[in-house]
Amino acid sequence: MQGFKGLTAVLAGGVAVCSAAGWCGCGRSAPPAPAPEAPAAAEQALPVSAELFEQPVKELTMSRSPTSAVVMVNGVAITQGQVDQEVAGMMNMMAGRVPPEQLSAARQEILQRTVDNLVVRQLLMDICEKQNIELTAADLAEAKAKIAESLPPGKTLEDLMAAQHIDAAEFETSLGRELRIKKLLDRQLESLKAPTADEIARFYEENKQYFNRPPQISARHILLGVPNGASAEEKAAQKTKAEKVRAELLAGGDFAALAREYSSCPSKERGGDLGTFGQGQMVKPFEDAALSQTLNEIGPVVETPFGYHIIKVTERTDAHQQTLDESKTQIERVLTNQERQKAIQSYIEQAREKADVKFVEP
Question: Burial level of 114, CB count in 10 A (0-12/13-18/19+)?
């Protein structure tokens, strides 16, 4: 069973949904990068693996049967089949985002991390059992609701399960396991103290260069999508339709209503609102048009590989240095997550020292 990927990445935080971002394409060349970059990097998912073996896990081959043990954790076997499924799931997730030659070269590292994560998960589940950490129906319902809310418009939990190649039973099992582990780790974090004003100010002074905010804009758009392989006639028809929609807007039409009616981008559910973005986050024709448009005016129809866009820039922020006051909330979150990472890593290492973990030679 591949498990519900993404949940173990936020064991001390909220519920995450990986794969969701892959469903949304509205002209973005990549997901928006957090700013400032270095402090935001510290907000990444908490580590759930440690260096568990003195020697790297050897490449697993088909000569070992799926039921054969790869590693024993307190007498419980992690099998070749479990490892294979986890590795295959990770490779599938990365396919299309990473060049094939790089993905192939990374397989051994993915294998090592996969085995480490499976070992850590088993160690923590052992502790959950010993401490009688259980879930209620309300816990599961709340987690499902959070996941559903995080999905792109029009997507469901069933769509997510299909993308993860798991059924409803596997989903519930994986979700329940990860939520139990989260409860366990949350207990380890209860004694952590919030960063002080002095710590926040010191972090700001030491990392000022990361608080230089580039120019950003907020915009809405309506996308008349063109599928791959569309004929010249199909493209021309969509462009003509885009021009008609633009004419409606120039005549006073409601942008949000027309976006909901005509746009093929998931942002249509938000009235075409794309949020805030900066340079390098949208495909070049879209970016060039948006950055050059006059505020609150309806721009000309813009063609990108996704189709034809009608853009309205609603806000523009010049490049500037964030003040300490502007940065306090972000810095507090970064420092808090750093301490959470340290606490959880320490807890995992202590659990590993007390455990009986043995790699099984083929």
Answer: buried
* HEC readout, 134-180: CCCHHHHHHHHHHHHHHCCCCCCHHHHHHHHCCCHHHHHHHHHHHHH
Q: Please name the residues in contact with 23: beta carbons below 8 A apart, sequence gap of 6 or more.
A: 151, 152, 155, 159, 266
The reply to whether 113 and 223 lie within a common domain is no
Q: Clarify whether residues 271 and 347 are in a common domain.
A: no
pTM above 0.90, yes or no: no
Q: What is the pLDDT of residues 21-49, one digit of tens each?
A: 333 345 554 333 333 334 443 333 334 44
67 strand-pairing partners: none
Amino acid type, 360: V
Q: Is residue 205 part of a domain?
A: no
Q: Which domain holds residue 184?
A: 8-195+327-359
Whether residue 310 contacts residue 246, with contact meaning beta carbons closer than 8 Å, is answered with: yes
20 and 116 both lie in a single domain? yes
Tokens standing for residue 310: 């009608």
201, part of any domain: no
